[in-house]
Amino acid sequence: MNLSRLFPLLLAAPIALASCSKDNDSSSATSSKLQVRMTDAPGDYQQVVLDVRQIEVHLKEDTNPDGWQVLPFQAQTINILEYVNGRSALLVDTDFAPGDLKEVRLILGPDSYLIGRDGQRYDLKTPSGQTSGVKLKLDKATLREKETFQLLLDFDVAKSIVERGNWKPGNDKKERYLLKPVVRVLAQDIRGGLRGTITPAAALPQVLAIRSSITVPDTFSTAADASGAFQLSSLPSGTYRVQFYPSTTAPANQPAYKVVTRTGVTVTNDQVTDLGQVSVN
Fold it and tell me: For the whole model, what pTM was predicted?
């Protein structure tokens, strides 16, 4: 994200960035926020690329085939080995009606592959019985109004990729490996937060909280009110870089307002991190 290019826009009007907290959006005042992320345990390959086509959640009992709802997701290939050791890929971030979720289904296409330690590409074939998708049951997954709920899909590469016992060097590379996804799903409310007070309050800054502990970084935004106070809610836990962009110009008899950055800010679930007073001059 190039913030230097973004800065002129911040001065002109409130920014419109993807955010887990849209408290000012009246159209979603009573909705929940649903996120789906994917992470991985390390595997002994250079790359493992998954062809992810569709993500769905089931809202009704198992016996009801009409309970599936397709989530807004653009089909894409994901090198899952880029998302290890606490990193995760954000797949879905959407407003969603409060209520219970029963299952999540991950539908993979035919174009998954891996790059082995030998540098060769091997297609990953999916057994015919799994072409309808990987279904994962959810236990006590309830979305509540104005809160963010996250489904973290923990993909286990080491268990998911199976080498055929009768394959030998020189055989068709498409026949060496099978993809039998082993995925664990972690469901959790996201209730971390940030707050503080800007001085001088007349600077009316935009506030960006950028979660730098993941790839690609998440960005959340809000604006300080007339008293200088600000708060961001429903933040995932992690380490953030918080930036303050004044939206007004200081009076002639005062020091100029400036962009201020706080780094290494820790957000913990179920807690609000207080940044105290932040001076922008």
Answer: 0.64
